[in-house]
Every structure is written in C-alpha cells, then in structure tokens.
Amino acid sequence: MWAAAASLNDILITQFKTIFTLSNFASAFVQSAFYGGYFVIAIPASIVIKKTSYKIAILIGLFFYTAGCMLFFPASTMATYSVFLVALFAIAIGLSFLETSANTYSSLLGPESSSTLRLNISQTFYPVGAVTGILLGKYLIFGSGASLEKQMSGLSGSARIAFGEQALQKTLLPYKYIIVVLIAAIIIFALTEFPASKVKSDASAKGAKITETLKYLLHNKPFKKGIFTQFMYIGMQTAVWSFTIRLAMSLNTSINERDASTFMIFSYIAFFLGKVAANFLMNKFGSSKILLWFSIIGSIALIYIILVHNMTAVYAAILVSGLFGPCWATIYAKTLSTVKDKRHTETAGAIIVMSIIGGAFIPLVQGLVADWTKSMSYSFIVSLVCFVIVLFYSRNQVKQGN
C-alpha cells in the first residue's frame, strides 16, 4: 500500500511540473512533502508502538493514509500546488506509522539470525504495489495523444487554466480506488489477532526513556553509519524513480507521459526481480556480499546513464532499479542489529525510518543539477554519488564479516 502511494508520486511530479509550470527543482518538492512526513512522525509512531502494539500503530497508519487520500478532493478543487503538498504530507504521516511498525515487526517475527532475509522477503511485495500505483497513474491520470506539455503550450489565459483544472481532476481517480482498499484493510486488521512480538528484555530493562535511547544511539558509530547510508540510498532510489519518466521524455521528445510511464512499470518489475534474485543469492553468499556486488554494477549503470544520451540510457535506469533490490532491507536490518540493548529497538527502528528524509533532499539536488546543466542525463551524477556510498558501506560490512 505504501509502495502504491510512493510510485504515484513519480506520476504526480510529471503532471504537476507541466500544469503548474514548475522547474525540475520545484517539482521535486512532491517528494520533499512526502518524505518530510516520514521524518516528522517516525519518533511519535515508535512511542505509540511502545505504549500500545504494532497492530494499533498499523491501524493508525491506515487511518491517516485514508485521510490524506481524501484531502486530494479539496486540493483538486482549490487547484494550488501547495494544497496538494499538504495532502501528500498527510498521506506520509500514515505511511510513516506503517513503515515504522511493519519493518521492525517483520524483523521480529522469527529468529534474529534470519531477520535480514525475512525483511527482504516481506519487502518483495513493495514492487507489486509500486507497479499497481504506476498502472493507476498511467491509465487514470495520464492521457493519450500528444504530451501534456505540448497540449498546454498552444493554450493561454482562461483556456490554459481550464485545461489545467481538468487535468488536475484526473489525479483524483487513483486515490478513489486506494481509499476503498484502505477501508477494507482497516476492517481486516481491526478484526484479526496478531502476535505482540515485543522485543525480549529482562524486567529491569523496561521503560527506557527517549533521551536515554537517543544518547545510546548517538554514541553507536555503526548505527550512525547505517543511518547515513540509508539516507543516501533512499534519496537515490527516490531521485532515480522521480526522474526516469523525465529522462525518457528528454531523450525521445516524440513520446508522451503515458508512453514514458511504461518505463517505470519496467523499473518496478526489475526492482521485484532484483529482490527475488537477492533473496536467493543471500542464502549462498550472505547479504553484505550481495549488497556489494549489486552496488558495483549499479554504479557502472549510472555512469552509463550520465555518458550515453540515447534511449539505451533509460534501460540502464531500469537496470539500476533492479539493483536496488537488496538495499533498503539489508541496510535496515544491519543497522537495527547494531542496537545490542533491546530496550531501544522500537525507537531505533523509527530513526532508521526517519532516514527516509533522504527522499526529500536528494531529488531536490538532482532536480537542481538538471536545471543547472539543462540535462536530465547529467543530473544522475547525484544518484551515482549515493550508490558509491552504499558500495563503500557494503564493502566495510564484508570486511567486518557482518
């Protein structure tokens, strides 16, 4: 469900850029509003989990997700970019609850030795939701014929405004279907009993204060390295997916938004296959080695995108999406495993989720580079830097035998 919302952002960036006449930098604020919500709510979500349960946190997340989707209706009527950003922020509040609870919950539902593999398996469902979101955007938001930019270029004054407002109404359609699914999910979760799966700790270890936890994590160097790496990875993932459609349209001006969005479907399919392949290979070679190998190939593919300015670069971007496969779950699990004092697990999991704020900043930087160089291809140097950082992190993990 959160993958569907995130992938729809890639559609909205392209749609809003034309309708509101935005620069690449300004259009990337879609991701800033979205991932900013994650950052703000992650710690409060962890407190809710501590005081209640993972089930309650998931239900709260589903509720706020539903409320955020409903805000798209007044946003489309008011037809201002800022109101849409508020709606996206509200959705992100719900998703922050879901990710903070579901990721840690998944890692706890079984032996610690297989927590990384278990989290990778559960994360395999992400691209399924992402493909669903892109398909909803492709057929419900994007139209056929010439690109939206070409259609609006011949309009001015009230005609352009009316056309833009009509296009904004199309953004409502995917969220109508999502609301129905969310309501069904709320009912199912409310009626289903789930294991508590609280982390094991002795009686004297209960009730760690938030200040104590933050102090502990602040002095945990491996944890901080993991947070930084996750920040850069999420920023890269978000940037690549935010600008793949724009990359395709910049390299082939004859295609429209609907045609270009097909490449995002291929990207998420590649992401799914990359996760499946990574899960299989981890059993044989270990998660850190797989992360290292994927990072090396991913960095090479990004260099190709930067240097080769034809449509083969788009297929290289699809390959990069496939090489994201083991990144999030592996870095998450490795970082969480550095927390040896289990009183701090819920808050540590929330802080790892807060590193998703990288998705708010890195796309802005890449959009700024695209505007500055007037080249979408050159802007991918920002993503390259991020993947190289993941590469060095995984190399260190391999050296340490983790």
From TrEMBL:
<keyword id="KW-0813">Transport</keyword>
<feature type="transmembrane region" description="Helical">
    <location>
        <begin position="177"/>
        <end position="196"/>
    </location>
</feature>
<keyword id="KW-1133">Transmembrane helix</keyword>
<feature type="transmembrane region" description="Helical">
    <location>
        <begin position="375"/>
        <end position="393"/>
    </location>
</feature>
<dbReference type="InterPro" id="IPR050375">
    <property type="entry name" value="MFS_TsgA-like"/>
</dbReference>
<keyword id="KW-0812">Transmembrane</keyword>
<feature type="domain" description="Major facilitator superfamily (MFS) profile">
    <location>
        <begin position="1"/>
        <end position="398"/>
    </location>
</feature>
<dbReference type="InterPro" id="IPR011701">
    <property type="entry name" value="MFS"/>
</dbReference>
<feature type="transmembrane region" description="Helical">
    <location>
        <begin position="56"/>
        <end position="73"/>
    </location>
</feature>
<dbReference type="InterPro" id="IPR036259">
    <property type="entry name" value="MFS_trans_sf"/>
</dbReference>
<feature type="transmembrane region" description="Helical">
    <location>
        <begin position="124"/>
        <end position="142"/>
    </location>
</feature>
<protein>
    <submittedName>
        <fullName>Fucose transport protein</fullName>
    </submittedName>
</protein>
<feature type="transmembrane region" description="Helical">
    <location>
        <begin position="348"/>
        <end position="369"/>
    </location>
</feature>
<feature type="transmembrane region" description="Helical">
    <location>
        <begin position="261"/>
        <end position="278"/>
    </location>
</feature>
<feature type="transmembrane region" description="Helical">
    <location>
        <begin position="28"/>
        <end position="49"/>
    </location>
</feature>
<dbReference type="InterPro" id="IPR005275">
    <property type="entry name" value="Lfuc_symporter_FucP"/>
</dbReference>
<feature type="transmembrane region" description="Helical">
    <location>
        <begin position="313"/>
        <end position="336"/>
    </location>
</feature>
<dbReference type="Pfam" id="PF07690">
    <property type="entry name" value="MFS_1"/>
</dbReference>
<feature type="transmembrane region" description="Helical">
    <location>
        <begin position="231"/>
        <end position="249"/>
    </location>
</feature>
<dbReference type="InterPro" id="IPR020846">
    <property type="entry name" value="MFS_dom"/>
</dbReference>
<keyword id="KW-0472">Membrane</keyword>
<dbReference type="GO" id="GO:0005886">
    <property type="term" value="C:plasma membrane"/>
</dbReference>
<dbReference type="GO" id="GO:0015535">
    <property type="term" value="F:fucose:proton symporter activity"/>
</dbReference>
<feature type="transmembrane region" description="Helical">
    <location>
        <begin position="290"/>
        <end position="307"/>
    </location>
</feature>
<keyword id="KW-1003">Cell membrane</keyword>
<feature type="transmembrane region" description="Helical">
    <location>
        <begin position="79"/>
        <end position="98"/>
    </location>
</feature>
